[in-house]
Amino acid sequence: MEKDLEIKLMTKIRLTENMIKRSVSVHHAGHKGNGRILTAVKDNNGITQTQLADKLEIRPQSLTRALAELEEKGCIERKRDEDDRRNISVFITEEGKALCKKIHEARKARANNIFGCLSEEEQETLNTLLEKVLSNGEEKC
User: Fold this and answer.
1) Taking 80 as the threshold, does the pLDDT of residue 138 lie above it?
2) Beta bridge partners of 91
3) How far apart, in whole angstroms, are the C-alpha atoms of residue 100 and residue 116?
4) What is the pLDDT of residues 64-77, one digit of tens each?
5) Residues 112-123: pLDDT tens digits?
6) Is the pLDDT score of 26 beyond 80?
7) Among 52, 67, 82, 111, which residue has the fewest nearby CB atoms (within 10 Å)?
8) CA atoms lying within 13 Å on the CB side of residue 2
9) What is the domain partition of the chain in residue ranges?
10) In what order do the strands lie in the sheet with 76-80?
11) CATH number of this structure's domain 27-114, picked from the four choices 1.10.10.10, 1.10.10.60, 3.40.50.1460, 3.40.50.880
């Protein structure tokens, strides 16, 4: 493959990433990123804050602030472990589940706006190619 083509591909991927970031019209649950946190809590209800920070690759201090916002809005509940008071587990509330559903629907609509110009077959091909690129990158890290 010609090196110029590889550079063009990298540029197009960066431009696509920027387009996706710009397409985020509504930030749910306070600020950007809380939707990802809330979804992770929903999928791992009762996860400790330490495990959640590791899973999302977020600094614990940043996660603590975001969780405080989510708790204030009634989306999550935090409970200190009775056996090990250092551990705090995070649980999603019914309000948090409802917000997760709204976030999922908004993400789905954004994805359709961005990738709707591709046929289902083209989307599958793009997904396969991106998985290949990502797995290659992970092997080299």
Assistant:
1) no
2) 77
3) 23
4) 999 999 999 999 99
5) 999 999 999 999
6) no
7) 82
8) 3
9) 27-114
10) 47-48, 88-92, 76-80
11) 1.10.10.10
